[in-house]
Design a protein that fits this description.
6-stranded antiparallel beta sheet; two-stranded antiparallel ribbon; globular; MYND-type domain-containing protein; metal-binding; Znf_MYND
């Protein structure tokens, strides 16, 4: 099997081409790219123009926000400041998510390290944050997630959802990196 960076986003074949607009996802064929287009399209143009040159600080990473009241996911800058130990050495980055998810909400997190639809490992850990009690706390139905999958398929998500990527396969990665649209595909497969 090809290394992770060179595997098609839709199957386990070696990737032969990259999306020419966003340059963020690879496919083995035009057919796989065409099958992925309805999912890829909402973020392709946004990703190509998001602009890492506009990064608010070194502690910000590109993340995905799935708003509850919009039909499309969004790219956001997620502040992930380094936590420090007693000697002021950086230990790990932690995302600041409360203004996006809610101040008083219990937070659930799912760590994605395997894509069951593709039957393959995800080499960096994708974390999906959500309101833990979203089925009981009055959260609105998540429109942006529901528009990504056929009706009746998968989980009934409510409230805002954030996805970000940590480097490596640890459940609690030390450092974060920018999300790419290959990561986005894994998140959609998870939903």
């Amino acid at each position: 099997m090809a290394d992770a960076a060179n595997i098609c986003a839709m199957c386990n074949e070696p990737a032969m081409a990259v999306c020419t607009r966003c340059c963020s996802i690879k496919y083995c064929s035009k057919n796989c790219q065409k099958v992925d287009w309805p999912i890829h399209k909402p973020l392709c143009c946004a990703f190509s123009t998001f602009g890492v040159d506009k990064r608010p600080s070194e502690d910000h990473v590109i993340a995905l926000l799935f708003p509850q009241d919009k039909t499309k996911p969004q790219l956001i800058w997620l502040h992930c400041p380094w936590q420090r130990d007693i000697e002021d050495n950086p230990t790990r980055q932690l995302p600041e998510y409360k203004e996006l998810i809610g101040e008083n909400d219990l937070i659930g997190v799912s760590s994605l390290q395997f894509d069951t639809l593709l039957d393959r490992e995800i080499y960096d850990t994708i974390s999906v944050l959500y309101r833990e009690n979203f089925l009981a706390d009055g959260s609105k139905f998540n429109e942006s997630i529901s528009h990504l999958k056929p009706a009746g398929v998968g989980h009934h998500w409510c409230g805002p959802v954030i996805a970000y990527v940590g480097r490596g396969s640890d459940d609690h990665p030390r450092a974060m990196r920018d999300v790419n649209l290959g990561d986005y595909r894994h998140v959609v497969d998870f939903f």
